[in-house]
Amino acid sequence: MSRIAHTQHPIKSPLDDDSVARLLERGLPKDGGRVLDLGCGGGEWLLRALAVRPGLRAEGVDTSEVALAQADAAARERGVRERLVLHHQKAEEFVSAEPFDVVLSFGAAHAFGGLLPTLAAARRHLAPGGRVMIGDGFWERPPSQEAIEMLGDFADLATTVDRVVAEGWTPIDGHVSTRHELDAYEWACWGSLAEWALDHPADPDSSYALEMAGTRRREWLHVYREAFGFVSLVLRRTPDGA
């Protein structure tokens, strides 16, 4: 269902192509380097990174065999497969003998138990002077209890950034998703899933997919649309004692 829902929005986060390109330009090394995506899914962040940095090498970690197969096929199609290594395992259990110049994690904080534990995991993989690129939710407005139970107990934007800084990180860039980006993401996901169901009425999963698309669309419009926001940060470690 997730693969189908993200057919028109492979980044799987509420960011448009220009925002993704700007974050990658700010976060990636100019020449060479190694990048790791914790919870890479179909690998779209890594594929775009490899496309804009010919000397870059990348590794992705995810528990979904289907998503990793999708990443593998897309990497071959785009001519970057020889610079990509994919690991089928839990991101929180991944171990590497070598550190990475950039660690990515967008929309995967739930796997680690939240934003700060995700940053702690990223720190373990980061080379000196490296950067973390991370995206997670926050509350733009006070949420309902139903929204909290549905999406998580986020803080507001200022508190979210303050907590990141208190953990020893310095933001060097960031992006707050616009209303257009947030809405475009939701329309794309649940519209793609609904259209697939309508186009495949004989498929045994068709009715389930159509029901899921309707449920997710109603939840977005009625429960969290006015409250949920998404922030992307480019971070470096704050020097000890600073």
TrEMBL record:
Which domain of life does this protein belong to? Answer: Bacteria
The Methyltransferase domain, residue ranges: 30-136
Coiled-coil positions are none
An example GO biological process term is:
methylation
Molecular function per GO: methyltransferase activity
Tell me which InterPro entries the record gives. Methyltranfer_dom (IPR025714), SAM-dependent_MTases_sf (IPR029063)
Q: What is this protein called?
A: Class I SAM-dependent methyltransferase
| Keywords on record | Methyltransferase, Transferase
Q: Which Pfam families match?
A: Methyltransf_31
